[in-house]
Amino acid sequence: MExxxxxxxxxxxxxxTLRRIAEELAVRPGLISxxxxxxxxxxGEAFSVAATGELDALLPAERPHGTPTQxxxxxxxxxxxxxxxxxxxxxxxxRHLSRYRPVLRDRVTEQELASDDRLEQLIREGVxxxxxxxxxPRATAIQILVVLxxxxxxxxxxxxxxxxxxxxxxxxxxxxxxxxxxxxxxxVPPPTEPAA
Length: 196
Prior knowledge:
Elements: H1 2-11, H2 18-25, H3 29-35, H4 39-58, H5 68-78, H6 85-97, H7 102-128, H8 137-152, H9 164-167, H10 169-177
Helix pairs in contact: 1-4, 2-3, 4-6, 4-7, 5-7, 7-8, 8-10
C-alpha cells in the first residue's frame, strides 16, 4: 500500500493499476489481485493510505504535548507551499475521479470526515483551554478546510504573483473564526516535547 500511495501522490490515481504496482514491487500482478481483486479497490486503498498519512503528519490524533495554538500553527505551516502540492493534487484527482468511481467516492467521503473530525477536535480543545473562541467548532473547522482546499486547487498553477492576503487566507480565516488577533498563528514555536 505504501508503494501504491507513493505512485498516487507522485503520478496520479490513474497510474495505480494492478500491473503497475506489481512492476514496482517486482512481483506478478496475480499477487496484487489476490489482495485486491479489482483495481478500484486498490485505487481506493491507495488514496486512503496517502490521505491518512497526510492527516497524521499535519495533525496527529494523539498530541501529548504542545498547546492547541501550537498545533494549529504547525498544521498551517505544513499545509502551505510547494511541499503540500502533491497531496493537494491527489485530492483534486480523487475528487474528480470519484464522480465515476463509487469505491473511491466512499474513500474520499471517509477522509473528508476524518479531516473535519480531527480539526474540530483540536478546536474544541482550544476552546476548552480558553485559547480559541467559537460557538460552533465543527463549522469553524469546515470553513478552514474549505479555504485550504480552495487554495490547494491551485497546486498546478504559477503562484509567484499571488498577493500576501491570498497566501495567508486560511490563516486569516482561522484567526478571525477563532477570535485570535491577526498574526497569532504565525511564528509560533512548534509543539515540542517538554525537556525531561
